[in-house]
Amino acid sequence: MSYIARFGKDNGACDTGNSAEGSGSSKGPDEVSNDFDHEIAQLTKHKSRPHQLLRGDMPGKLRLPVSTMKMLVGRESNHSGRGRFSSADCCHVLSRYLPLNGPWGVDQSRSPAYVSQFSNDGLFFVAGFQGGHIRIYNVEKGWKVQKDILTQSLRWTITDTSLSPDQRYLVYASMTPVVNIVNVESSKTESLANVTEIHGGLDFSIDDDEDEFGIFSVKFSTDGRELVAASSDASIYVYYLQENKVSLRIPAHQSDVNTVCFADESGHLIYSGSDDNLCKVWDRRCLMTKGKAAGVLMGHLEGVTFIDSRGDGRYLISNGKDQTTKLWDIRKMSSTAIYSPRRTYRDWDYRWMEYPSHATTLKHPNDQSLATYRGHAVLRTLIRCYFSPAYSTGQKYIYTGSSDHSVYIYDLVTGAQVARLDHHEGPVRDCSWHPLYPILVSSSWDGTVARWEFPGDDQVPTLMRPKLRPRRVFY
């Protein structure tokens, strides 16, 4: 049975260009809106399109998708003159085989699953549950639990986790100023906080008399020497691990900072997103002299729940409580917020109320985003979104969890909804695509962590469903 028959084809809407109106149309894979930023379209094509000699493009002919068989024949005949596939050739083949089969159950819990992420090399997978459990699975050993961590100093839930680049340490955050760090390289499978193993506390508070705050997001730098954190006191913190102290605090926004990340491997640029509806770019090289953001990105009409960097120090995507994902180019940012609209619905709370249907047509008068993707729902919790892997897809897709219990995959350039993975019984707060293989894992408030693959193993897809107790609404 085809994937379209199994999952349906429900095209999302994509507004492209810098105009407030947008195009609102979905185009074919080789048709790019004239208003859409030409550079990001070309960069994506260069990363995920086969060599022209393997394509066999002919002027005046209808351009059709290149079959894998045709590419293999072209490689054997050495049409490109290289005798092998380039990375773009490989991405063109691999990106056509999406992780849509399944789901298979990875784990289940009586408490909601909040965070999930593959390690950089894909050997390990981390899942964090509201009840205070974090599990690290060995992907190559049949998803066996490598480390079972019972947390300490937990308030409400685990808000975020981050695995160090060398995979030796894991940090986890909660609604407190203390981020805990665990040595996951130790031989013990069970890690009970300060009983079987020490969970070191990294205190992000600077003054003893300051109001207590919580941390929504925490990330390791590429070199593993620093942590960057987003907090409920409207600030960004940078923690220098070697000196065991906060090296930088930035009063960044006018409301909760829900998400933060490094822009690229250099660690100089930081992206942040807040409930003040703004995404901001921070350049650490000039903070001491200017003391303010390098730029502001306007376009969301409600708070920003998550940001993911493309890794090139230029492009990023963000999820917003206005029920959209937006694509940004930091070269289009403003020096200050020209216009920050008041909340249209002051009594509206995304944690337990539906978004007003007529509000989906509203536009920010100074929208600086390159494209806006609609179809998923950003409600109940801080839903996360990501670029698809560079190695296997050339980052030609973006994907996001959704409060309607699904995972959505969009074409980056056309905005078309490529797939919707629908099986959970609760909001999908987080999801992660394997960096090398067509495997995607979704974690949901129904307590399940589920695996989607192409083509999948010989097992019949199963997803275990625990009986959950009634729960309160949390971030």
Structural summary, described in words:
The protein has 475 residues and is mainly beta. The chain has a single domain (101-453), classed as Methylamine Dehydrogenase, Chain H, CATH 2.130.10. It has 7 helices and 30 strands. It has helices at residues 3-7, 38-48, 52-55, 68-76, 87-94, 287-290, 390-393, and strands at 13-16, 101-108, 113-118, 124-129, 133-138, 144-150, 160-163, 169-173, 178-183, 190-192, 200-203, 215-220, 226-231, 235-240, 245-251, 257-262, 269-274, 279-283, 295-297, 304-309, 315-320, 324-329, 371-374, 385-387, 397-401, 406-411, 417-422, 428-433, 439-444, 448-453. The strands form 7 sheets. Strands 1-23-22-21-20 form a 5-stranded antiparallel β-sheet, with no helix packed on it. Strands 3-4-5-6-10 form a 5-stranded mixed β-sheet, with no helix packed on it. It has a 4-stranded antiparallel β-sheet with strand order 2-30-29-28, with no helix packed on it. α2 (38-48) crosses α5 (87-94). It is globular, with a radius of gyration of 22 Å. The two termini are 39 Å apart.
